[in-house]
């Protein structure tokens, strides 16, 4: 059977955007006898659903272009609908690229209601507010895996397909590793998964990579309070748990640093927390005023994370910070 030309999209290795192009190309009506055709149609249908639209009853033509005006993937359905895909793995949107790509497609012969911008994200990102504000809908790794699992149910037997599906499943397994690995065996992906569940359980928070001279860390920060002169908040630096402040005025940093360190440490025991001063006080916009001495990650008998107990522990720090703020 004739199949889409993979080498039209990929050269020496199969990148994610090339795989997306390849799978979308199978939706073309010339491949109707293939289970890959049905899977390609399923993917297009899911992308339509992200924008609250129904897939056309009949698909007469599918054109897939890679790197059209720097747009990662452009899929044109029935010469009427333009699905523009910004394909992201470990990177995030930047430099106004999303609005630029959308405006490029708007300048062509498409009705605005028939343009479907998709932010295709198979690695994890803490916040998508900027993405959604630009009119894009996020299509996640789990959503893509659901499409590929549908392909498996159809009986797809393709090394290209299976290798890429296994690649995505491997990422998911790594991100979920925090659930089954003892906490002293966690690695980067484990922290990503932990922070994502923690954000859900706490109902707030943001996580991202934070660079520093020692190589950086994956941080999680939340529970901001205070005013424009001094903000107080909580921050996890992987295994390290800090209470921090943000002070813009250099002349007031020493004062606020001393004030909040004393108030927090003086009241910590009543909340069941053991705190100490950091090894070195900083003097920048963001400063650590206290460090939690104990392991904040609560574990079961197997050494693996107990999320409920961990959240309860972190709530103690929230309550402490709330109390010292209200009594300041």
Briefly characterize the structure:
This protein has 328 residues and is of the alpha+beta class. The chain has helices at 16-25, 35-50, 97-106, 129-133, 141-153, 159-175, 188-202, 253-267, 307-326; strands at 62-68, 71-77, 81-88, 115-121, 137-140, 206-210, 217-226, 231-237, 240-246, 275-276, 286-292.
Description:
With 328 residues, this protein is α+β, with helices and mostly antiparallel strands. It folds into two domains: 6-174, no CATH class; 187-326. The protein contains nine helices and eleven strands. It has helices spanning 16-25, 35-50, 97-106, 129-133, 141-153, 159-175, 188-202, 253-267, 307-326, and strands at 62-68, 71-77, 81-88, 115-121, 137-140, 206-210, 217-226, 231-237, 240-246, 275-276, 286-292. Helix 5 crosses helix 6 (159-175). The longest helix is centred in the C-terminal third of the chain and has 20 residues, at 307-326. The model has no long low-confidence stretch (mean pLDDT 92).
Q: What is the radius of gyration computed over CA atoms, rounded to a whole number of angstroms?
A: 24 Å
Beta content: 15-25%
Number of strands: 11
Strand line-up across the major sheet: 6-7-8-9-11-10
Helix content: 25-40%
Structural class: alpha+beta
Low-confidence stretches: none
Assembly state: single chain
Profile the largest sheet.
6 strands, antiparallel
Give the number of domains. Answer: 2
Rounded to the nearest angstrom, the distance between the terminal CA atoms is 75 Å
Give the averaged pLDDT, no decimals.
92
């Amino acid at each position: 059977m004739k199949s889409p030309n993979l080498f039209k999209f990929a050269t020496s290795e199969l990148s994610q955007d090339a795989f997306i192009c390849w799978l979308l190309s199978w939706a073309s009506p010339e491949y109707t006898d293939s289970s890959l055709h049905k899977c390609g149609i399923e993917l297009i249908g899911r992308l339509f659903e992200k924008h609250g639209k129904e897939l056309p009853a009949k698909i007469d033509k599918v054109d897939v272009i890679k790197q059209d005006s720097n747009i990662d993937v452009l899929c044109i359905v029935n010469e009427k609908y333009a699905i523009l895909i910004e394909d992201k793995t470990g990177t995030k949107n930047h430099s106004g690229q999303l609005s630029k790509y959308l405006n490029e497609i708007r300048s062509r012969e498409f009705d605005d209601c028939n343009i479907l911008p998709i932010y295709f994200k198979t690695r994890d990102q803490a916040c998508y507010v900027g993405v959604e504000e630009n009119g894009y809908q996020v299509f996640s790794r789990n959503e893509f895996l659901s499409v590929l699992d549908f392909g498996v149910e159809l009986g797809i037997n393709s090394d290209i397909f299976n290798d890429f599906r296994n690649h995505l499943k491997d990422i998911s397994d790594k991100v979920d590793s925090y659930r089954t690995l003892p906490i002293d065996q966690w690695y980067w992906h484990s922290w990503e998964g932990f922070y994502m569940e923690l954000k859900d359980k706490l109902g707030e928070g943001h996580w991202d990579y934070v660079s520093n001279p020692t190589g950086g860390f994956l941080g999680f920060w939340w529970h901001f309070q205070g005013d424009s002169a001094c903000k107080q908040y909580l921050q996890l630096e992987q295994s390290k748990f800090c209470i921090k402040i943000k002070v813009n005025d250099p002349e007031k940093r020493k004062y606020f640093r001393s004030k909040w360190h004393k108030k927090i440490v003086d009241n910590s025991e009543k909340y069941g927390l053991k705190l100490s001063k950091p090894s070195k006080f900083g003097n920048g916009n963001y400063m650590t005023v206290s460090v939690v001495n104990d392991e904040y990650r609560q574990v079961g008998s197997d050494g693996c994370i107990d999320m409920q107990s961990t959240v309860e522990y972190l709530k103690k720090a929230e309550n402490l910070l709330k109390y010292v703020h209200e009594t300041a």
